[in-house]
C-alpha cells in the first residue's frame, strides 16, 4: 500500500537555524510508501531538488514506484518536502505566527544543514534507526551528503547524483542572475499571494539554460524554416517560466536558491575532502556527461574523497535534467551497485 497524500509533522517548539534565527514553529510535509520492515532494514530515503515536492512517484517515475527499482512492495520509501519550500513544509509562503502574515521576503535565510535537521526530526518521528539507501539529485544530493557526514553510520549506501559537495561560483552566478530577475519584479516585496510571479517566469527562463545545454536546444528547439520571429526557443523559454510560476512560490524560489549557494560540507570541518572522509557509507556518485551546472568533476571529487566511493557517469542529451529523465540508465547503474553491496 502507498500513501498518495502528504502527511504532516508539526513541531510546536521553536526551531533554531544555523544562522541564529528562530522559527517559532515548523511543519514538515512528507510522503511514505510501503511498510517499514520489522528489522528496519528496508528504508529508502529520497531527497528532492529545488522545486519538487515530497512525492517522488510523481516527479521521478521510472525509478520510484510500483514495478520500478525502488518499489513500495519491498521498500519503505520516505521523502520530505524541504524547509523553505511551498509544498506543505514551512517556508516563505507560510504564515508567520508572530505577525499573522505570510513570511514572504522576511523568511530567514536557511542552509542545507537546517533542512537536514528537520529530516532528522522526521526520522525520529517515524522510528527509523537505519537507512538502507539515500538517493538524491542536485539540491537533493547536497542534503544527502550533509546528512551522511552528520550521521556517518546511518546510511548503508548513498547515491548522490548530479550534485556537489560545495556549490560552485558558476552555480552561485546562475542563482544570482535568477534572483536579480525576481528583484526586478516590483511586486516581489509584497505579502500578496501573487507577488513576484512575473519575476519568477524570467528567473526560470534563466535557470533552464543551466539545466539543459546548447546541444539540447539545437536538437529540440531549432526551427526548420526561414521565419524571422516567433521562434520555438523563444516560446519554449516563456512556456517554462509560466509553467513554474503556476505551481511554485517566487519567495520560496528566491530563498532556496540562496540556500543552495550556502552549501559547503567543509564549513567548520576544515575542508570539503576531510568532511567527505567522515562518511562511512558505500557511496556511488553519478554524473551526467552533459551537465553544465554540476559538471562531472564535481561528482568525481565526491567519489575520490569518500573512503568507500565509486563513480559512474551516464550520457544524456538533457544536461543536468538528465538525472530526472534518464531513469532507465540510472536504474541499470544503481541496480548493479545495490547487488554489489548486499
From TrEMBL:
InterPro entries linked: AB_hydrolase_1, AB_hydrolase_fold, HAT_MetX-like
EC class: transferase
E.C. numbers: 2.3.1.31
Binding site for substrate: 204, 321
One term under GO cellular component: cytoplasm
GO molecular function, one term: homoserine O-acetyltransferase activity
Lipid biosynthesis is among the record's keywords: no
UniProt-listed Gene3D superfamilies: alpha/beta hydrolase
Pathway involvement of the protein, from the record: Amino-acid biosynthesis; L-methionine biosynthesis via de novo pathway; O-acetyl-L-homoserine from L-homoserine: step 1/1
Keyword Cytoplasm among record annotations: yes
GO BP terms: homoserine metabolic process; methionine biosynthetic process
Catalytic site: 138 (nucleophile), 291, 320
Catalytic activity: L-homoserine + acetyl-CoA = O-acetyl-L-homoserine + CoA
Protein location: Cytoplasm
Domain AB hydrolase-1: start-end pairs: 43-324
Segments passing through the bilayer: none
Entry similarity comment: Belongs to the AB hydrolase superfamily. MetX family.
Subunit details: Homodimer.
PANTHER family associated with the record: HOMOSERINE O-ACETYLTRANSFERASE (PTHR32268:SF11)
Function: Transfers an acetyl group from acetyl-CoA to L-homoserine, forming acetyl-L-homoserine.
Protein name: Homoserine O-acetyltransferase
Lineage: Bacteria, Pseudomonadati, Bacteroidota, Cytophagia, Cytophagales
